[in-house]
C-alpha cells in the first residue's frame, strides 16, 4: 500500500507579517497532484491542520476545499487533530465525512478503533491518536499521573490490543502528534512540556509497522518505522535549513517500509545573515539572498540609523531585524543573557529563589514550582480548546 504522509499544515498561519494562505493553497494543489500522479492509496495528515483553535474563515474555506478535492480523488484520507487544533471543532461532522472517505480522528476514546483499508495483500489498520493533552485525557486512559509518556503508552496499549484481535498478517499504521525523543525541534512548535518532560521514547510505537508523526516541523527519521513529515511550509527562521517535504511510504505485504521524500513547493527561500550593517550591504557573497525572506542580525556596537530601510534596499524581503551588538565579555548584559540561554522556566524560577534568599529551593519547593508551571500550561490549553 502506498501512503502519503504529511502533517502540520497550520492553515491560517502567517510567516512574520506575510500572509501564507496563497502558499498553503499551493501546497494543497501540490498534494492533490501528487496523490493522483504517484498512485497514492491513502493519505495521512498527522495533526495541526489549523494553526489555532478558532481559525480564520479563509483557512476554514481552504480546508473545506482540500476535503472536497481529496474526496473527489476517491483516495481515503485519515486525519488527526494536533495541539494547535480544536479537536471538537475539527471533528464536527466526522461521521458524515467518513462516508466520503475522509476519516477524522479527534477523540481520544477512539484510539483503539482503526480505519481499515485493503490492498491486494490484505488489510491495513490505521489508528488515529490525536494530540493527547495529559491533563485532559488521563481519566480516559486511567493513568494516575498526567504525563505524555503515560497517556501515549496507554493509547498504544489499546492499539496493540485491537491489533491482536485481527487476522494474522494485518499491517498497521499509527498517526500520532507528539514530541518523540531524538526529534529536532524548531522555534515554530508550541511548548507541550508537562512535568518537565516534553518527549516520549520512540519505543512506545513498538508493535506497529509505521508511525506517521506530526508536531515537529522538520522532516526527520527517528527510526525506519517512525518518521516526522514536518510542515510543508516554513513558519520561523529557525527552519532556514529545512527541506520541506512529504513522505511517500510503500508498505510491503510483509509490513516492510520503503520511504521517499517528496519536495513541497516553497514560495521563497529563507536566509539568516549576520554582521555589521555596512558589511551586509556590501558583501558580494550575500547576493544569493537578495530574493529570499531575510532575518538580519546586526552586530554593530551602536545601533545604526534606519537599518530596516537600508537593508530593504538590497534585501527587499527582509522580515526580521535583530540587534545583538558586540560587547566585551564583562558587560553585564552579556553575562545575564548567558545565564538565561538554554534554561527552562523551571530553572530560571529556581535561580530567582536562590538569588532572593541565598539558597535554592528544596525538593518539595521544586515540585511546587513544577506543579505551578504545569497548571499554567494546562490552563492555557483548556482556554484555547474552549475558545
From TrEMBL:
Record's signal peptide: none
GO molecular function term, any single one: 3'-5' exonuclease activity
Record domain Nuclease SbcCD subunit D C-terminal: where: 267-355
Stated role: SbcCD cleaves DNA hairpin structures. These structures can inhibit DNA replication and are intermediates in certain DNA recombination reactions. The complex acts as a 3'->5' double strand exonuclease that can open hairpins. It also has a 5' single-strand endonuclease activity.
Subunit structure and binding partners: Heterodimer of SbcC and SbcD.
Domain (Calcineurin-like phosphoesterase) ranges: 1-217
GO BP, one annotated term: DNA replication
A matching Pfam family: SbcD_C
Stated family: Belongs to the SbcD family.
Keywords carried by this UniProt record: DNA recombination, DNA replication, Endonuclease, Exonuclease, Hydrolase, Nuclease
Record protein name field: Nuclease SbcCD subunit D
